[in-house]
Amino acid sequence: MHRLLSIAMTAGLFLMMFDADASPASFRVLTYNAENFFDHLHDADTHDYQYLPLEYKNSHPEVQAYCATQTGYYRDRCFKMDWNEATFHAKAMNIARVIKESGAETPDILILQEVENKNVLQKLVDWGLANEGYREILLVKGPDPRGINVGILSKFPLSQGMKYHQIDLSPVYPAPQKPKLTRGILEGTFNVHGVDVTIFSNHWPSQNNPHTTRVIAAQVFVKAAKAAPGYVISAGDFNTTEQDRPNGINEYLLNPNRDPMFLDFEKVHYGEQLSDEIVPQRGTYAYKGKWQSLDRFFLLKNQSQKTTLGVQPQWDSYRVVKLPFMLDSKGEPQEFDADTKQGYSDHLPVSVEFAIQ
Question: Alpha-carbon distance 189 to 187, whole Å?
Fold first, then answer.
């Protein structure tokens, strides 16, 4: 009896020592603007006419009429590009390759932009990410007439229902102007190793819109983040440059005089004082040969300077996924070509990691 008790105590002590030395749980998050990730089917009330099979385009007068309103490059694509099921499949497999080769394992949470609908995300999982463990597929179809939406894929279960925060741009376009419609901000709260983590997927209005449109997006996001449960991670394509005036990021997210204040994962990683010239590998999008950090991660400062709610950002983990096969001859992101079925996106993804203490 004493010998059995001694064995049990020794085994218990060993398990305690093992637990004490065990590494904390971790998770990885990746944001990726997949650029025009459409399926080959027409969605009602959506101007997805560029991204349809030629057979469909040529047999539907409404498609021909729409294409006739386009100009230049977009007109040519609208009339001539054959976005059939094989093209859609190739695009999905190429995007899946980037995701799978972005790390030793696929990211636990994927934050995606420029996705047409939930079917696109489902096919991405079924065709390219089968057996990777993605159990939650989130997407809300917003009002953007082109069918450009944001989504989230997660290996962790939802702990609360998802929310969608619409961005109203009408203040920027007073009557009689017609307000532009844009995608909103998607919110999902997940149970990550027993901790509530709220993810925001952003795709703010493009640089073709006034800077004030992105200020409105910043205001919508900050209001949503204040009310969000758990640990907050916000990522996506913010379409904001340092030259924006007014600047939604600098004035609403990174302003120390505002509450709450956020931390920019990239700037914490590299250091605020480092310019793009000093760290040339920075940037996720190249415009006229100049790299810009449009795709970013933001964390609440009061949650991220120390371990809060059991989550600790791993600042050294920040990485722009910039693998050779993703780049063209100029070293810039290789866009997908519907004719050759080669290429990926005009953006590069960003990957970060967190520890659960």
Answer: 7
Angle made by CA atoms 182, 113, 103, in degrees to the nearest 5: 165
Question: What is the amino acid identity at position 326?
Answer: M
CA–CA distance from 177 to each of 169, 174, 219 (Å)? 11, 6, 22
pLDDT on residue 205: 98
Domain membership flag for residue 7: no
Amino acid present at 153: L
Contact 111, 29 (CB under 8 A): yes
How many CA atoms lie less than 13 Å away from 5 in the CB half-sphere? 2
**Residue 103's CB: how many other CB atoms inside 10 A?**
15
What is the tens place of the pLDDT at every residue in 207-220? 999 999 999 999 99
The owner of tokens 């590299």 is 270
How wide is the angle at C-alpha 54 spanned by C-alphas 51 and 56, nearest 5°?
85
Within 8 A by CB and 6+ apart from 85, the residues are 40, 53
- Statement: residue 107 has pLDDT above 80: yes
d(CA 300, CA 146): 32
In this structure, are 118 and 134 located in the same domain? Answer: yes
For residues 78 and 187, state if they share a domain. no
The confidence band for 259, taking pLDDT boundaries of 50, 70 and 90, is very high
CA distance 12 to 327: 53
Look up the CATH number of the domain holding residue 150: 3.60.10.10
Single-letter amino acid, residue 345: S
Co-location of 287 and 311 in the same domain: yes
Residue 288 is assigned to a structural domain of this protein: yes
* Residues 33 and 345: beta-carbon distance below 8 Å: yes
Q: Which domain holds residue 76?
A: 49-83
